[in-house]
Amino acid sequence: MNILSHSTTNFYKQLPEISQFSEVTDSKHYRKVPDDWIVIVTDIVKSTEAILEGRYKDVNMAGGLTLMGITNLLKDMEFPFFFGGDGVTILLPGSRLNEIRDILADTREFVREYFKMDLRIGFVPVSDIYEAGYSLTMAKLRISKHYTQAVLGGTGAAYAEIKIKEPHSKYLTDNSYIPNIRADFSGFTCRWKDIQSPKGEMVALIVKINSNSDSEAAKTLSGLLSLIDSLYGSEREYHPLREENLIIEHSSSVLNKEATASSKGNSILKKLYLWKIKFETYGAELAIRWNLPLKAFHYKLNKLKNYQIISSDFRKFDGTFKMVFASDTVDRKKLESSLAEAEKAGKLHFGIHISDRALMTCLLHAGTEREVHFIDGAGGGYALAATVLKKKLQTVAA
């Protein structure tokens, strides 16, 4: 690894923060990603099949475990990552490559054994992306006291994903790779029931903007954000989470998944974790119901629902615009109609999935008081919206 490794290690932490999502359209907030970094892409192979079999929660869980394992390795959650439903994209200094490969390979073994799914793992050096003529820039958005969200510009991340999914790609980590470091999934939680839309529909939307210049792309994205605001009003009107719709899960079959991850499948530890999780869920529910000022880590348990909302990852820009939001049918059809017009004009392509509820996957790193709550549409969400988008792009390319 070249001499730049040390000086670029804190690239993300040193990025200036923006405070409003609308600011992602302004190029002045972006910085070029160091060329000694790597783009890490993981996803579930044949995820669409698993989702159609009703295993969308397991698909989401695999992505969450990937990030939790890396978070515990780094002992921090202040690094750039993007959750896409059936996988994640992560950017980190290349100096951490070997240990990260170990963590992800061990995660793959766990996912294969306990969820019967195959986790694809790939690493693309940012220098390779630049050599191929693609760009990759980054900004940082402050979501809450406990969570900053990375924002990506350029086409480099999309290029990395394409290269990793090529047959016999040189960037893939072979299935025969044996890890020397084991992943720790502590901090991964899944303790909420599916969240009903307050408006009837829960929409997962992915928009790929077509443009030959950053200024044109920014103009199209700005227009999209304005369209959403004009249809729905304030963020609260379309936010997928409402406190009244957040219900703590007590089902052993659901909580058992967290216990399995925390124990890495050890049968005795798994039982102990399940008892611990049940005790904590009932304690949290009592604190919420009776407004009891109990604390766990940095949480005031009577305010637990609010923590989920303020640190939720329901909207992002990683080279494509992604959002899960609540809508009624009338407004959703208006949005689709406007997007279809823009698509016909060649400005963008989009994929959409409609459900009546969302699911939430939570990661908590207690040592640094960092947390993130990933939101996806139930029944397929981002993964199925991406399938729709992919088919459109293939048709255009044909």
Structure notes:
- This protein has 398 residues and is an alpha+beta fold.
- The strands form 5 sheets. Strands 9, 10, 14, 18 and 19 form a 5-stranded mixed beta sheet that branches. Strands 1, 2, 7 and 8 form a 4-stranded mixed beta sheet that branches.
- α3 packs antiparallel against α4.
- The longest helix has 24 residues.
- The radius of gyration is 20 Å and the shape is globular.
- The two termini are 40 Å apart.
- The N terminus is likely disordered.
How would you sum up this structure in a few lines?
The chain has 398 residues and is of the alpha+beta class. The chain is 41% helix and 25% strand.
Low-confidence stretches: 1-6
- Structural class comes to alpha+beta
- Which of globular, elongated, flat, extended, rod-shaped describes the shape? globular
Q: What fraction of the residues are assigned to beta strands by DSSP?
A: 15-25%
Name the helicity range. 40-55%
Number of helices: 13
- What's the quaternary structure here? single chain
Provide the residue-averaged pLDDT: 95
* Radius of gyration computed on alpha carbons: 20 Å
Give a count of the beta strands, DSSP E runs of length 2 or more. Answer: 19
- Main beta sheet: 5 strands, mixed
Q: State the end-to-end distance.
A: 40 Å
Short descriptors:
disordered N terminus; alpha+beta; 5-stranded mixed sheet; 4-stranded mixed sheet; 398 residues; 41% helix; 13 helices; 19 strands; globular
Map the helices and strands.
Blueprint: H1 5-8, E1 17-18, E2 31-32, E3 37-44, H2 47-52, H3 56-74, E4 81-83, E5 87-93, H4 97-115, E6 119-125, H5 126-131, E7 137-144, E8 147-153, H6 156-164, E9 188-189, E10 195-196, E11 201-209, H7 214-232, H8 235-238, H9 252-263, H10 267-290, E12 295-296, E13 299-300, H11 304-310, E14 312-313, E15 315-317, E16 321-327, H12 329-344, E17 348-355, E18 357-365, E19 370-377, H13 381-397
Parallel strand pairs: 1-7, 14-19
Antiparallel strand pairs: 2-7, 3-5, 3-6, 4-5, 7-8, 9-18, 10-18, 11-16, 11-17, 12-13, 15-16, 18-19
Helix pairs in contact: 3-4, 7-12, 9-10
